[in-house]
Design brief:
The complex is a heterodimer. Chain A is mostly beta strands. Helix content of chain A is 0%, strand content 50%. In chain A, the strands form two sheets. In chain A, strands 2, 4, 5, 6, 9, 10 and 11 form a seven-stranded mixed sheet that branches. Chain B is an all-beta fold. In chain B, the strands form two sheets. In chain B, strands 2, 4, 5, 9, 10 and 11 form a six-stranded mixed sheet that branches. Chain B has a five-stranded antiparallel sheet with strand order 1-3-8-7-6, with no helix packed on it. Chain B is globular, with a radius of gyration of 13 Å.
Chain lengths: 111, 114
């Protein structure tokens, strides 16, 4: 079974630029999560989708972050404009309603 | 503040010894707990989980113990191998059954000495 796919794996941008991350969950997984993991810390949930609907986005900085899952499968997370403190690994996870399975993450460096 | 934390940020063990990684949680409503292993440059990998109606669960070389009285979770790794070197995170589901949202602790780095 293929795991959660994410791209790109690495991204370097300058502050105030925009960036987008893509996630393809495990086939059949209705629930999709985006996490932010700052160096030395555990992952922090940004947003949770159930199919194409948002379950919880209470920790998503909505002034600069947006996410969508239009067809209930793939998802994109966007940051516009990026700040220095957005430098982190962005992890996508999916589940069938239980155990979350993570992708490899996208490592973002904002200069 | 975070409701899940770890007692030891780093742990070094000799290859072949058993490892014990501890975790404290503060949310009495949490009913699901999970341990993840994260190797450098990779996403967290599921190790084992446990529900609040259990106090022990065993997997292959790993055992998770849950003590709800003192809100404590531990991961035991038997016969630790160099491949076990990683950061280990405990996570809890503080929202109760249904949402399966997870709150992660800061992690413990396990180093295995060959």
């Amino acid at each position: 079974e293929a795991g959660v796919a994410q791209s790109p794996r690495y991204k370097i941008i300058e502050k105030r630029q925009s960036v987008a991350f893509w996630c393809n969950p495990i086939s059949g997984h209705a629930t999709l999560y985006w996490y932010q993991q700052i160096l030395g810390q555990g992952p922090k949930l940004l947003i949770q989708f159930q199919n194409n609907g948002v379950v919880d986005d209470s920790q998503l900085p909505k002034d600069r972050f947006s996410a969508e899952r239009l067809k209930g499968v793939d998802s994109t997370l966007k940051i516009q404009p990026a700040k220095l403190e957005d430098s982190a690994v962005y992890l996508c996870a999916s589940s069938l309603g239980g155990t979350q399975y993570f992708g490899p993450g996208t490592r973002l460096l904002v200069l | 503040g975070e409701s899940v934390g770890l007692h030891l940020p780093t742990l070094s063990v000799q290859e072949g010894d058993n490892s014990i990684i501890n975790c404290a949680y503060s949310n009495s409503a949490s009913d699901y707990f999970i341990w993840y292993k994260q190797e450098s440059g990779k996403g967290p990998q599921f190790i084992i989980d446990i529900r609040s109606n259990m106090d022990k669960r065993q997997g292959q070389r790993v055992t998770v113990l849950l003590n709800k009285t003192v809100k404590h979770l531990s991961l035991q790794i038997a016969a630790t191998q160099p491949g076990d070197s990683a950061v280990y995170f405990c996570a809890e589901n503080p929202s109760g059954a249904g949402s399966y949202q997870l709150t992660f602790g800061k992690g413990t780095k396990l180093s295995v000495i060959p």
